[in-house]
């Protein structure tokens, strides 16, 4: 008998929730075949079978919160031949045995047809009306003596058919309003969604959060990217996007305004002499922020490669605990969803987060003339306990200047 236990989940993660069991008791399992899925407050962890065998016991059911090293299940080990024999037995057992059922070979009869006595002569007016409307007397229940079909019976059926036709026509145009109880669905929050909710509320309750705004003319970045994106992809095997420009611009600004790259620890301020850049990414499970370590020392190609890899892992739900820890500053791009302006919420314990938004052509005054330029609103949310207004505004202006003159990023000005 082999025990399956909760593995180590990473630094500072001590418990998880059983999200899904892929196998049930009695199922054959192969080594490394997925048994169940655990949800932590950061990532989803799949638990594989350590041996070949039969899942004999499930100790921790779906929805249960378990700690590291808790017992999940027990597996009875089997050899290869045993697995084949048992597999055959299970397949045979799964084939349903034929059962004898009494079949009534007589044709079904509707209650109305059973009531009508075919030897009874119907009213002449009823026969005429049925003939005009192509109705069978067997489909009409007579109310006369001995089941005789009267004119009133035919009229009643005609009125019923007319009302049904009108109802069906209305239903085809406007479907019936669903039952109110069918218009709601109660779903338990995942651990990831619970963690997102608690951390965002913690950020609002703890930090003295303010947001400052500016706008950036994206003309130079767009032109530079358009000129070199094909050559860039041929050489480095990755697309040249906007995010590497913003990451570079933020890294440069953080050198001048280090308090935006700091955090509070009780009565101390910890200034980071590196930039571990968090790039917020939306996934079907919720918002995650994978971290690119030492982003300040990376080239454009290295940044784009790292961003592409982290984004791909986020979409596939394959991020590890280490991928999400240690960020010192965050960039969130609401523009990919069409947001024109927003106030991003801090990712504690960080003291700054930059919000990117939709690029939109707008009229702007340049050298005394009105011109149409691709503009983007930028938003910096910051912790006013560490960062003063002057520092926040200076940071955002430096980001703006770097993006409007992107060549300065390439030659490290």
The ordered string of helix (H) and strand (E) elements is EEEEEEEEHHHHHEHHEEEEEEHEEEEHH
* CATH classification class of the largest domain: Alpha Beta
Structural class: alpha+beta
Overall spatial form: extended
Number of helices: 10
CATH superfamily of the largest domain: Chloramphenicol acetyltransferase-like domain
Mean pLDDT: 82
| Assigned CATH architecture of the largest domain | 2-Layer Sandwich
- Unreliable segments (pLDDT under 50, ≥5 consecutive)? 81-118
Q: Major β-sheet, in short? A: 7 strands, mixed
Rg on CA atoms, Å: 35 Å
Helicity range: 25-40%
Number of domains: 2
Sum this structure up briefly.
This protein is α+β, with helices and mostly antiparallel strands and 413 residues long.
Please give a handful of descriptors for the protein shown.
413 residues; alpha+beta; OB fold (Dihydrolipoamide Acetyltransferase, E2P); Chloramphenicol Acetyltransferase; 2 domains; seven-stranded mixed beta sheet; four-stranded antiparallel beta sheet; 10 helices; 24% strand
